[in-house]
Amino acid sequence: MSTLLLITAAPTSIHAWHALGLAQSLKEKNEEFRVFFYQDGVHVANSLNWVPDDQRNLTAEWLKLDIRLPVCVSAALSRGITDAENAQRHQLSLHNLSQGFELTGLGELADAVESAQRLIQF
């Protein structure tokens, strides 16, 4: 069964951590799944997030899964997160998308919703 995890919760929310836990379980069981970061969930892709040494880093944990990590480009840009290409396009002086994450359009979300057998939103 293919699953889409739609992550809209900010990284400070327990729901964002539950999404990661489910993704880890699905990967461990070799079950087919995709993720998509949308709304406040895009904050996980901000390379400027700082996490104290005594806390787990949600961004780093997602990267350990070694899966595609698509992030809604519009939601990211509206929250001050961009890659180098969009920074240049929008004449921004810096880019801060964490390496390993990828800005994509809502067409990717639509495709994921269409092909998934179940959708779970966090």
Automatic annotation (TrEMBL):
- Which domain of life does the UniProt lineage start with? Bacteria
Q: Main localisation, per the record?
A: cytoplasm
Keywords from UniProt, A to Z, are: Cytoplasm, Transferase
**Localization terms from the record:** Cytoplasm
Q: InterPro entries, from UniProt?
A: DsrEFH-like, Sulphur_relay_DsrE/F-like, Sulphur_relay_TusD/DsrE
What family does the database annotate? Answer: Belongs to the DsrE/TusD family.
| Identification of the protein by name | Sulfurtransferase complex subunit TusD
Q: Which organism is it from?
A: Acinetobacter chinensis
What does UniProt list as this organism's lineage?
Bacteria, Pseudomonadati, Pseudomonadota, Gammaproteobacteria, Moraxellales
Q: Which gene encodes it?
A: tusD
